[in-house]
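PROTEIN DESIGN WORKSHEET
SECTION A - STRUCTURE
LENGTH: 292
TOKENS:
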């Protein structure tokens, strides 16, 4: 049955309003986006800011910034020191940040980045976390044309002969229980390496003394990621980049590995730089801020 003229007219009358609402939803609220630039400027700053500096960093006039800051103060997002008159993030901003951090799953975030990183590097990727026995593989993604590597999920990686182990040994904080275990684990592993039977093949990239161990860890920190070439498995090279959380602690390691015939093992090669770039972005997503 055709709609009555009254019904049709109502429908036509409502249509523009519905379209306007949809347009508003797509457009968002510009004033909120503008005001957020002030909060972003505060979060990027090392400390509290004067109004003129805060406004400049947010790209707006001081008068305009002040109007937003009045509202933000009422909501507790911003506080102003009565003596210095500087502005800083308030308790409501802290609560929002803590709530967001509590909802973050570092491994889940890392797994979401794996497909793009796999396409960029063209080599097998993995994610490792610190487990009861040391750095442990918890996710694995093989590149279609990669050489198979005999590692499995749940494998605990050695500290001295794997890129993953070197990364964790170099970047784990020393003030926690796990960090305190690392020196003893390094000594035990070094002793085991010395007891391995001689095969006639030179040990490539494997430390033989405590001094060489310390030099290896210093190089790992200097380069910003762990690297091995032939030392874990003959013909295999790899990198592991650290991902840090909001407290600056090592949350996980991102790993790339493959045959040395196809994997560029240079510190500034595509696999290493892509891995580091992804790890830095993940760290930022977890709330980590690098030192100025």
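SECTION B - SEQUENCE
RESIDUE ASSIGNMENT:
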């Amino acid at each position: 049955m055709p709609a009555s003229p009254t019904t049709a007219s109502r429908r036509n009358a409502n249509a523009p309003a519905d379209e306007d609402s949809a347009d508003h939803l797509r457009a968002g609220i510009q004033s909120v986006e503008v005001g957020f630039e002030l909060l972003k400027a505060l979060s990027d700053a090392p400390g509290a800011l004067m109004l003129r500096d805060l406004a400049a960093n947010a790209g707006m006039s001081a008068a305009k910034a002040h109007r937003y800051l009045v509202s933000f103060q009422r909501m507790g997002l911003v506080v102003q020191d009565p003596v210095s008159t500087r502005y800083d993030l308030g308790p409501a901003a802290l609560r929002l940040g803590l709530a967001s951090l509590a909802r973050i799953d570092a491994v889940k975030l890392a797994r979401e980045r794996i497909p793009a990183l796999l396409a960029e590097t063209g080599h097998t990727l993995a994610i490792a976390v610190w487990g009861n026995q040391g750095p442990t593989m918890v996710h694995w993604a093989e590149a279609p044309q990669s050489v198979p590597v005999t590692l499995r999920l749940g494998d605990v990686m050695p500290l001295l002969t794997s890129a993953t182990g070197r990364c964790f040994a170099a970047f784990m904080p020393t003030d926690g229980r796990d960090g305190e275990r690392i020196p003893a684990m390094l000594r035990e592993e070094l002793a085991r390496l010395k007891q391995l039977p001689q095969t006639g093949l030179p040990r490539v990239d494997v430390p033989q003394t405590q001094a060489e161990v310390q030099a290896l860890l210093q190089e790992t920190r200097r380069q910003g990621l762990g690297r091995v070439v032939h030392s874990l498995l003959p013909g295999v090279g790899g990198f592991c980049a650290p991902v840090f959380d909001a407290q600056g602690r090592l949350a996980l390691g991102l790993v790339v590995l493959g045959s040395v015939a196809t994997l560029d093992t240079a510190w500034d090669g595509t696999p290493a730089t892509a891995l580091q770039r992804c790890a830095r972005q993940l760290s930022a997503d977890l709330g980590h801020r690098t030192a100025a």
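SECTION C - NOTES
Residues 5-27 form the longest helix (23 residues).
The chain is about 50% helix and 15% strand.
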